[in-house]
Amino acid sequence: MITCWTSDLQRLEPTTSTNTLVAWVKHAEKRIFPRIEALDFDSELQKHNTELMIVLDETLLPHSSALVAYSVYARHQKTVLLHKLCVLERYRRQGVARRILKMQIEKSVGCRGCDSVRLWVDEKRMPAVGLYAGLGFKEVDRVQDYYAPGRTGVRMLLPL
Description:
The protein has helices at residues 18-32, 41-44, 96-110, 126-134, and strands spanning 2-6, 50-56, 67-76, 79-87, 116-122, 138-148, 151-159. By secondary structure, it is α/β, with parallel strands linked by helices. Strands 1-2-3-4-5-7-6 form a 7-stranded mixed beta sheet, sandwiched between helices. It is globular and about 40 Å long.
């Protein structure tokens, strides 16, 4: 399922096709992340428990520059798994990621039976680690070379 939001995170009835929105996300994913970290959106979005949230700047629609951020998350048993959270560079440090995460946490709390949100983050991505810790996520595990040689993955958990 795909949820679209404007830059102020109000639900938007998209005037742009779903396929176009997903194409914008795929393009951003390839541009921003190393190949080994890039999600395969074609297979991920086919899974019944996976959702893609897209944040758009409605003042720029219908152009591809309207993409502000996106996140991919899934429910697995009693846990919400945050697979990806990406804010395009020109929108970073403006609170977009924090607002997206707060919305996802609120949605998870309302989800029957969910008891936690879990994610992995590269220990060297200090702004991301700080954001998650500031929202109550706690480090529960570390795996050396999780992302690539020399890049340690930190698993974080937020009990709901």
